[in-house]
Amino acid sequence: MVNGATRQSPACQPTAILEIGLAWCFAWGEAKIPQVDIHVLRQMRRAIKTGEAFPEAIQLHLKRIIQLNHLDKANYPENAEALTALVQKYPDLWNKRIGLVYGGATKIKQYVFEASKLQDIRGGSALLDRINLIDLPAFFKGEEAGDRFPQCARVAQYCQQLRTDWLQTEFPGLQDALIPELIVYSTGGNILAFCPVAYTDDLANAIEKRYTTETLTANSCAVGQAFRFLELRYGLLKDPIEQTPWLDWYLQNATQPLVEALFGKAEDNLTEQFKKRKSFNELVRQLAVRFNQRRSGDDRFRGDRPSRRYPPMLETHPYVQRDQTENRSAVQQIKDKQNRRGLPGEPWFSDVLARKRVTGQTAKRDNQNKAWFKPDEWLGWHPGELESWTTRYDDFLQKHAELAAQYNPKKQQLQDDKKEARSLREIGNASSGFVGYIYADGNNMGGYIQTITTAEDYQQFSEAVSVATEHAVYYALAKHLEPHQLAGINDPESENRNGTWIHPFEILTIGGDDVMLVVPANKALAIAQTLCKQFETLLVDKNPAFRRSQTVCAETFKAIHRYQPQDTNQENSNEPPPCELSMSAGVLITAQDTPIYYAEKLTTQLLKSAKNQAKHLKKEHEYFGGTIDFLAMKAVTMLSSNIQHFREYGLVFGNKPKRKLYGAPYTLHDIKGLLKTAKALKKSDFPRSQLYQIRSLLERGKHTAMLNYRYFRVRLDKEKQELLQKHFEDAWCSPKDPQNGGNLAPWMSIREDSSTTYETIWRELVDLYPFTDKPEQADTKSSVASQEV
Q1: Residue 374 contacts by C-beta under 8 Å, 6 or more apart in sequence?
Q2: Which among 181-185, 238-242, 310-314 has the top mean pLDDT?
Q3: DSSP character for 618?
Q4: Is the sign of the CA dihedral 520, 522, 527, 529 positive or negative?
Q5: Residues 6+ apart with CB under 8 A from 494
Q6: Which InterPro entries does this entry report, sorted A to Z (predicted)?
């Protein structure tokens, strides 16, 4: 022993991040005043991280945490008696408790998309991102965790000031009880973290209050509960512990309806099924249930906490001036006066809208138009430290020279001074006034999470998914886009911007496995397909445990995918290995002046349709890959109802056989083929009038459409006929019977519910035609990039 410290062997010293957090809470105790001097606790944390000697006073606490982490690696208790023996052997792990808190923003879209302008939507999203990625980790001193919370590390002074000026004032003592090793994850708009028992309610209240303090109207919810340390390994336990229904009980009752509702349908290996349920996973599920109850206004488990049933209320007097977008009581009009620059249109701002607008401008580094906001005039509120997604994208490109060369192959001027798009018009300027909305979300996440049994695995899973999602977005943008020089812009918000080089995209949010993007319309589908495919690739590269071992046979492949080119085997040889998790996306191609709230609503419907198709393919064919649904909408008046209703009643004809004039949603393989077919159609120079004529004839019957397609097709020269035959007719429209020669172009024969349905992708090819570049033009960027690399 040296100066009251003891040297421990590496085998006896906690190494995992969460082990340090658990040891901290175990040594702290269950009171607000730690049972061990706070300086000793800090010395312990520092010593564990550096491998140095640590105080003798906390030896027993560290030993108990190590024992806890090795419990389930030995003999698993098979009955209540064996479980009771654990309590007798490790009484500290049974008697001592730890707090676990889960919370975050709710009804995010309601808050973000209630505004009508991109600047305000961007600001609402950026403000929530700042709270999720900086403010909440800052409660735990996230800047000290280095690479784990890079946003906090880059604004360390802001994090320290937040704790000093706000957290310590609102919740005294809380900051001393929190360290970064207590955070299980803090991504996707939610946080899951441990804390000393006495501060469980304080931490949950602090999370909710931070959202309300900063946004005024955004909904948030947080719940916390104290659990015994032994429950971190064996799930919820009764007191006395011998009354807990255990493995022997489950083996006898596994097929009972109520038991199956709790543990899932009985499978072959009941023991493993029970272990997965009775684990840390059960604690998280308990908090998720409490979270939904509190969010719905259920106060049964409120305890001493304030109720959350009453949302923020703002003044709505009928004679007051209102802001121009959210219809709330305005507090100030932004005019040019006293040598202070105003905003185009001299808008009225409510307090809520002003916060969104200045946050959006700060995130976009638009300091020139931010002079109108003086914190003293807005109750001292400041947008804080913000980092836009485009800034992170630039940082990503600096670390990946090959992608940087691909994104900017011509090395346009002002490479280091590219601006961020201010409006949808600037993004649409890169695609003839049309933009594409992409909303992507992960598949199979809930099922996979059910297999996670420890907090450490939760942490690793969250980090892997978060990194894969973000990097997949950057990869897709770099592969398909390039900087754009604005031209012909006359919008007041883009005054004097003609000739400016911009990043032609908008990342609205990246959270966990959720992505929302706005990109040029001509690249939207390609970006979505690459994003979903790269997500799977990065996950498998990050952790081989995500890889699926099953291979898809030829028959199953044909049942899943409709795109069947002659070189299918060659194409599939370059595909990434199959992954347990995947991503689906909804893509809406529409005019730049389409109301954002309406576009978001339709994109959400497309995502839901894509995910339903993924669930269907998984159930029927064990397909775990991603899916994409898309819609090209030339005018806002094109749809008077939802997309499903429009398709069922406007694009489906006949009964036996049924004719569907659309093919969506598609698998990622099919989307890749659809884009190839669209390029081949463009290259064939098929007369546009004939494209639309064939589309109009689809409604008149199968044979009428086939005859007219044949008539127009044979009028092309031989080379272009062969191009269509290879990329459209043979790849999509071959008959199911291989002995039957010819094809059904422009139809595909699909077997549905013991009957034949004829689908066609022709309508969607025609919709994509204006947004498809000829192959020579599309390949220019790739060839230049390869030369640079």
Answers
A1: none
A2: 181-185
A3: H
A4: positive
A5: 422, 423, 425, 426, 486
A6: Cas10-Cmr2_palm2, CRISPR-assoc_prot_Cmr2, Rev_trsase/Diguanyl_cyclase
The position carrying tokens 């702290």 is: 28
How far apart CA 356 and CA 112 sit, in angstroms, is: 9
CB count in 10 Å sphere of residue 545: 13
3-state secondary structure of 515: strand
Helix, strand, or coil (residue 155): coil
Alpha-carbon distance values, 288 to 60, 292, 652, 692, 705 (Å): 33, 6, 41, 51, 53
Higher pLDDT: 344 or 447? It is 447
Give dist(CA 2, CA 5) in Å, integer.
Answer: 5
Helices (H), 297-449: 351-363, 389-399, 401-407, 424-428, 445-449
Type of residue numbered 388 = S
Alpha-carbon distance of 373 to 377, in angstroms, equals 8
Q: Helix, strand, or coil here: 252?
A: helix
Strand duo 419-420 + 501-503: pairing: parallel
Residue found under tokens 């807990």: 244
Phi, psi of 324, rounded to the nearest 5 degrees:
-90, -5
Instruction: Name the phi and psi angles at 67, rounded to 5.
Output: -60, -40
Q: What is the pLDDT of residue 775?
A: 67
The pLDDT, as a whole number, for residue 569 is 58
Distance CA 730, CA 320 (A): 66
What's the whole-number average pLDDT of the chain? 85
Single out the residue of 274, 237, 238, 234 nearest to residue 254, CA to CA: 274
Instruction: Write the DSSP symbol of residue 167.
Output: I
Instruction: Give the SS3 label for residue 114.
Output: coil
Terminal Cα-to-Cα distance of the chain (whole angstroms): 58
**Any idea which residue has 């022993």 for tokens?**
1
How do strand 658-660 and strand 755-759 relate by DSSP bridges? parallel
Please confirm whether the linkage preceding 657 is cis (ω < 30° from 0): yes
Give the pLDDT confidence score for residue 12 in this predicted structure: 45
119, 388 Cβ separation under 8 angstroms? no
Closest CA to 197 of 177, 211, 215: 177
pLDDT for the residue numbered 46: 83
Place of tokens 């209703």: 645
Residue ranges of domains in the chain, CATH in brackets: 5-95 (no CATH), 390-784 (3.30.70.270)
Residue with tokens 């806890």: 68
Q: Which of 226-235, 326-335, 354-363, 759-768 has the lowest mean pLDDT?
A: 326-335
Residue with tokens 């596994």: 254
Least confident of 602-611, 684-693, 778-787: 778-787
Residue 461: both structure tokens together: 């899973």
Question: Other C-beta atoms within 10 Å of 394: how many?
Answer: 16
3-state class (DSSP) for residue 231:
helix
Amino acid identity, position 242: E
Residue 615 identity (one-letter amino acid): K
The 3-state secondary structure of 561-617 reads CCCCCCCHHHHHCCCCCCECCEEEEEEEEEECCCCHHHHHHHHHHHHHHHHHHHHHH
Tokens 């429950």 map to which residue? 231
105: three-class secondary structure by DSSP: strand
Assess contact for 200 and 101: CB atoms under 8 A.
yes
Q: What is the pLDDT of residue 366?
A: 65
Q: Please tell me which residue, 549 or 643, carries the higher pLDDT value.
A: 643
CB 572 within 8 A of CB 633: no
Strand ranges for 107-218 from DSSP E: 183-187, 190-195
Residues in a beta bridge with 587: 438, 630
Compute the distance between CA of residue 654 and CA of residue 755 in angstroms, rounded to an integer.
Answer: 13
Collapse the DSSP code of 504 into the 3-class scheme (helix H, G, I; strand E, B; otherwise coil) and give the result. coil
Q: Please tell me the least confidently modeled range out of 8-22, 385-399, 587-601, 750-764.
A: 8-22
pLDDT digits (tens, 9 = 90+) for 574-588: 565 678 899 999 999
Burial of 237 (0-12, 13-18, 19+ CB in 10 A): buried
Phi, psi of 390 (to 5 degrees): -65, -35
